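re: ur question from earlier - yeah i can do the single chain one, its not a big deal. heres the input i used so u can compare w yours
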Amino acid sequence: MNNSRTRRRGEELIAAIHAAVLEEVVEVGVARLTMDGIGKRAATARTTLYRRWSDPIEVLLDALYHAHPVEEPSPGADDLRGDLIRALRLMRDWMLSPAGHAVALILTDPVSASKISEELVDRVFAVRGGTFTNTVLRHYAERGHFPAELLTPVVADIGEALVTKRLIDTRTPPSDADLADMVDQAILPAIGLGPDVRGGRRPDPEA
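and the output i got, formated as tokens:
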């Protein structure tokens, strides 16, 4: 007899449901996502889901919100290059996670995108810091490291666009050295800085 329904409580149960909805949406898509399907995959009763969420889209958005990493730049704003590399590494690792796969499916499927893309932006990306390098760049611009007017929407998206393109073109994640090149050759030049932004010393990308 499977006692998983009665044993799991609180965070453990929520984590199982979040994992289940991410697997389910990749398999069936947003349009065919149901409470029954999520419940069966999570080995929990549908009534349990309805105690917390009103519909399967709410379950999905909650899972994506909790799975979305938030970049935390250096408090002293003293390592712009290193923070940008770490932000792209965080993005790369997230894209390879179940949540990243789910988001990729949603945004590349016209039906799914039409149903949830706006809420995905408003309720996940916007409240979790926006794009990864944008969080870092805003942090440094606000502290006077470069003119804030240089942080245009195009500049804010450069790193994310390059990581995404690399994954699409090669079907392999960019290495840490690739991420450092994206920072040195694209993001920093766009805000008028070079790879020696820390004062002549190129930080180790693994730092």
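Residues 1-5, 199-205 have pLDDT under 50 and may be disordered. not sure if urs matches, ping me
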